[in-house]
Write a structure and sequence with these properties.
The protein is built from five helices and no strands. The chain is mostly helical. The longest helix has 57 residues.
Length: 125
């Protein structure tokens, strides 16, 4: 073979190799992102499963705070629904966090509840 043809073939080969390496890297990054999102979804499901236990533990102590418990239950039901849009799911999770924070703030008025071992365990999770 002549030298210019060899140089062209080497350049084409390097170009194809670079494209193949970029494609493999993009596929690997996509798989890492999917795996990470799967972990997030697992933790959110675990959180959603703990909310009813938390509400039932608090319900017996908080007889006059019915609206707070109803809000937490309503938003938890909304969060459990599968939401394909991560942005919408993020807004729903933020709303759930705000309602749980409100409920935890209200529990400060109930020393018996704060002392309950069941409530402490649920709050840690």
């Amino acid at each position: 073979m002549s030298t210019p043809v060899t140089v062209v073939l080497v350049i084409i080969g390097l170009f194809l190799l670079a494209i193949m390496l970029m494609f493999n890297r993009l596929v690997r990054l996509r798989n890492v992102m999917r795996d990470s999102w799967s972990g997030v979804e697992t933790e959110l499901k675990r959180r959603h499963d703990l909310v009813p236990n938390l509400v039932s533990a608090v319900r017996g102590y908080m007889k006059f705070e019915k609206q707070v418990l109803e809000n937490v239950t309503r938003v938890r039901a909304k969060a459990v629904q599968t939401q394909p849009d991560p942005e919408q799911q993020g807004r729903t999770e933020s709303e759930l966090s705000r309602n749980l924070s409100t409920m935890f703030a209200v529990t400060e008025n109930y020393p018996d509840l704060k002392a309950s071992a069941h409530f402490k365990a649920l709050r840690r999770n």
